[in-house]
């Protein structure tokens, strides 16, 4: 069964510089389906009082007064965050409706984005988020503080917008034969929402060129079974540099790959290849866990 049947394209938006790109790519995916669109804004409370309190020196009456004051500050912050979120969602809804999207909902909920994904992704076909949010406003490079956690909890494909919307024409699938990569290959084969209207490039990089050729042959055969033509390339050398070079030379718009096949501890010690690819590449990404 197709993953898109009665499932949403979920767009996580926060009003940051990349929010418009997230909406545009979500609209593009929605129209490819056609698939309904769910616009999501999450409110993560991080209240910090403007007043410094030395609790050990306070009398009971002063302590009670300060607790009331803190509660008032929190209520005001919460109201402002909700109001800001409603505006973000209304603007996004108007943008989607102007683009011709009819089947859509806009939701606001409290908590972090990863928490929302855990709760909602059973209803979702694909997740669309930006590579960075409000915390990285004005930075050319960098990844959002919640991005890795969002990717790691995702059981559905997660599309990551890194730059202003440009209608995609070419998708590069980086295939290395790992379990997540094989899952991504079968998803690419099965889902028109992903491959429809795109020129598919399959690239395998290995220290051993013959091993890369074997991987390419296997992937090409799987796609042929589904009637999907692909340009294939086997390469030997440094995976990161060769993939990023291929992206640039061939004007790739989207890079599809398996993500975070190792634990967070392994990534912390040795560095995550997924994170390095996200940082070094200029394409949008479609990651599969």
| Rounded mean pLDDT score | 85
The total count of strands amounts to: 10
- CA-based shape: globular
SS class:
alpha/beta
Question: Short description, anyone?
Answer:
This protein is α/β, with parallel strands linked by helices.
Characterise the protein shown here.
- By secondary structure, this protein is of the alpha/beta class.
- The protein has two domains: 8-45 and 81-159, Rossmann fold, CATH 3.40.50.620; 168-288, Rossmann fold (3-Layer(aba) Sandwich), CATH 3.40.50.620.
- The chain is built from ten helices and ten strands.
- It has helices at 19-32, 60-98, 113-120, 147-153, 179-190, 192-195, 209-225, 239-249, 264-270, 273-280, and strands at residues 8-12, 37-43, 104-110, 124-130, 158-161, 170-174, 199-206, 230-236, 254-258, 284-288.
- A ten-stranded mixed beta sheet has the order 3-2-1-4-5-10-9-6-7-8, sandwiched between helices.
- Strand 1 (8-12), helix 1 (19-32) and strand 2 (37-43) form a beta-alpha-beta unit.
- Helix 5 (179-190) packs parallel to helix 7.
- Residues 47-56 and 262-271 have low confidence and may be disordered.
Task: Set out the fold topology.
Elements: E1 8-12, H1 19-32, E2 37-43, H2 60-98, E3 104-110, H3 113-120, E4 124-130, H4 147-153, E5 158-161, E6 170-174, H5 179-190, H6 192-195, E7 199-206, H7 209-225, E8 230-236, H8 239-249, E9 254-258, H9 264-270, H10 273-280, E10 284-288
Parallel strand pairs: 1-2, 1-4, 2-3, 4-5, 6-7, 6-9, 7-8, 9-10
Antiparallel strand pairs: 5-10
